[in-house]
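Lab notebook, entry 384. We have the chain sequence and a SMILES string for flavin-adenine dinucleotide, and the next step in the workflow is to get a structural model of the bound complex before anyone spends time on docking refinements. Request logged below.

Task: model protein plus flavin-adenine dinucleotide, output structure tokens.
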Amino acid sequence: MLDYFLTEAQKTIVEVADRIGREYILPYAHQWDEEEVCDPRPLWAMSKADLFGLFIPEEFGGLGFGTLENCLAIETLSKYCTGVSTTFAASGLGAYPILIAGNKAQKQKYLPAVASGRKLCAFALTEPQAGSDASAIKTTALKEGDYYVLNGIKQWITNGGVADIYIVIALTDPKKGARGASAFIVEKGDPGFAIGKKEKKMGLRASTTTELFFSRCRIPKERLLGREGMGFIIAMKTLDLSRPGVGAQAVGLAQGAMELALSHARKRIQFGQPVYNFQAVSHTFAEMAMRIEAARALVYSTARFIDSGAKNISGASAMSKAFATDVAMWVTERAVQMMGGFGYMRDFLAEKMMRDAKCLQIYEGTNEIQRNIIARELAKFYKD
Ligand SMILES: Cc1cc2nc3c(=O)[nH]c(=O)nc-3n(C[C@H](O)[C@H](O)[C@H](O)COP(=O)(O)OP(=O)(O)OC[C@H]3O[C@@H](n4cnc5c(N)ncnc54)[C@H](O)[C@@H]3O)c2cc1C
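Result returned:
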């Protein structure tokens, strides 16, 4: 309903992503959710449309745009299937560490393939005993001559098996804990690297989530990103940059759920009139629209803040993620309610959207952790 004064290029990105959503995603979203498959066809369409390269600099094969343009693409795709948009966004998540800490040779080697969509990325931080407390990771990467040897397990990694490039956070100095963590590029097919079981999930079922196993996985020392000991900082900076993207997923998903339920409520006749005519129903839609617009405004403002080159982005990034994803959870639940039994049936997409929304409150740091970050930044910002 609002005009965000997007540039012509930004409007084009939305149009392109919307066409891909309508043609390559929506007709199959229900099927992929039921079958739990990550279908390559929408990814090929995104690759052909250069969407994977939106925020990658032109010198490395991308289009040289920023966070906002990436968020616009993610939001638009998410309206049609947030599982598919997760595969897309998680590849960007895996590209950020290379952009943040990669040297020129690493950027030249990996980014053009990522920008073109020929290769997908994944970002591997979480382990069985290290979720919110990422500093509790145990995977090691010990130096042996010109190589690092990785041992350990990563859990719940988006794009596991479908990605070619994995950013792995592992301890080069286990005695130092998080300060001894480093970031590495691991390639599919590296000896000692194996993909574990594919998880069965509540939602986002068109996206693949797996374990990763490293058993004496030997990689050349040139795969270290930045310096030894920088792994945790690289991981946190990565999440600061990518969290507005999760907010954008939430905005698109909530928008899709509202439109779906609105269309139903205007057609569904009870007591001789469309249920939308009942104030309890129409006010619920008014509330949905307000919350979605507030979430969108926060996500876009945060993305623009990041693109301005601002340094202290952690608080804003966490706000955009937590606020928008809480909105998506609320809106999708209400959408199911406004559709009554139709909302509950798996033949319609409303219940899928509600299942998809739940994960947005959990991954890339739970919304409780986002509130910890916001509170920490608040205390720094407002000094006594
Ligand atoms: C579908 C899916 C895909 C994922 N993809 C990836 C990926 O690609 N890469 C990756 O590295 N990880 C990935 N993850 C992992 C995800 O980031 C973690 O699940 C998340 O960070 C939370 O960790 P946890 O699940 O272990 O929860 P826990 O840390 O065990 O938390 C349990 C509960 O305790 C709360 N809690 C914990 N600590 C605090 C605290 N200090 N203050 C307040 N509350 C707290 C949490 O908010 C939560 O409600 C994925 C997860 C899912 C479900």
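Notes for the group: The radius of gyration is 21 Å. Worth checking against the assay data. The mean pLDDT is 98.
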